[in-house]
């Protein structure tokens, strides 16, 4: 064959090859569709060598579905990527799906976004819808509702009904900015929405056709639960929108014929310019008991994941195990008993500008047990315990806490009123949300609600009989990663309580203590640091019921005429303080120094005694207090040995004056300075029996 003949033959084969290949791929697809997967796989494999993208795609699909070959997602995405390299739109789309749903590869919204974008560029309509979804939700890219609406609008204009339906939902959410969509599309959507609203409001049933039985929300409890959960979730959403993001969720509440209620919050997603949180489901399961009570079990999201705008996982939370159950009373919207145990809780975030942050908590325990000793007045204990908390930055521990134990004890708390208070505040928040400055009509409604709440409080008073709260922190450490300074404390205790809060001879207790305090100070300063403190103060004979009445009157005045109250608030508070001061003097309210002890490496001090308010004394106070100080002389000498430190010299002079005024007692080599302070009924101030009135008066003059 001559050279010219061979050239003509080669050109002929080249021109006939596409047609032959098309015929071969059609035959291979026919084998696949007939179910002869082995023959189809062999046919597709033969075409792969010729660079056929369709064959590569079908091989990927067969691996994904386990057709003719064992299911293998890794092989599937490998073949999809080879087909995509041949500009195969459906292959790009499948790659996007696998990255979005974590099939054969780790979830990567950024990679999914890129694949969907490539498919959309090739005219893939489903990929265009996915692009719109990703822009709307901020997956793999920054949230951009305007761009999402624009993509859906173009597809809807071209006749894509699915895009039009999605666009309606986005438009109805109120997030689409003005000027993005054409007037024609907006008119079409508004017409559909108007038709839907008309249908919802004009549903009629024939005499023989009964209305469908509701599948949820068919009880007051279910409706109340829905309102409460939606309020909490909408608060999250409102806060997110204020920061330029959003919070999406789906709330399902179902109730069966036995009154069993199940509430599930799913598809939670928090969107921001920094990234996207994908949050697991949360549930609340209520089983009816007797007397309007429900046995309840709750679960928080077991995991959540934070993705940056490119879809990279840069944070998340985990609760390894949890168990939370108790008894719920809808009438007061309160759990009256409960037990909870959570373990191995973790939160982490890899912030480019700050590094990898991680918070770990080993265990959390909750307990609540209220009873009803009086009708609608509840009493009982509650506790919260957190153990082994640790925070690290780039692997370096910056905070740790061995144990936090908090105990409460409530006495005759009116949960009916406090539930009403909570509901009123939520109602006010809903009415004023997004309004800026409330209108006169809105303010009038709020004032009416407030006045009704005050009247209800007076009707229910007393609202609280008393309470005790104590908190203990153990093995506390704070480490500044920048300076390397470390703060530690063996233990810290806080306490607050009130007795007979519903009477006019009530008492308040305040307590504070710490031990093993260690601050990053120079040794000279550290010696003066009170590493141990134990203080308990008790105020008794307090007119607490009268104070509650005055507070209610003040709140009522603020509601009735808020402008006048704002102008006169300072005077009103001052007047209330004077009235309470006079009343305390009349009944003899007393401050007891039950314990007052401080200790440093160089000195220690303690105080005991009591001061009583008295209307008969010119100073309005009588009583005796003893202060005892050990190590005063050593402290003064230590300060005098710092001649270049002016603050130390000033402190030394003050201690020298204090030393001269005290009574010095030495016992076994230990020197104690004693200061007995007495405020007499005739208005004198005695220090260790000496009249110091003139000196004290001079010190108090301007």
Structural class computed from helices and strand pairing: alpha+beta
Query: How many DSSP helices?
Result: 19
Query: Rg from C-alpha positions?
Result: 37 Å
The first-to-last residue Cα distance is 125 Å
Largest sheet, strands/sense/barrel: 6 strands, antiparallel, barrel
Overall pLDDT score: 84
Tell me the overall shape.
elongated
Strand order of the largest sheet: 2-3-6-7-5-4
Estimated helix fraction: 40-55%
What is the tally of beta strands? Answer: 23
In terms of DSSP E residues, the strand content is 25-35%
- Report low-confidence residues grouped into runs of 5 or more: 1-20, 203-217, 698-702
Describe the structure.
It is a single chain. By secondary structure, the chain is of the alpha+beta class. It is 42% helix and 33% strand. It has a 6-stranded antiparallel barrel. Mean pLDDT is 84; it is low at 1-20, 203-217 and 698-702.
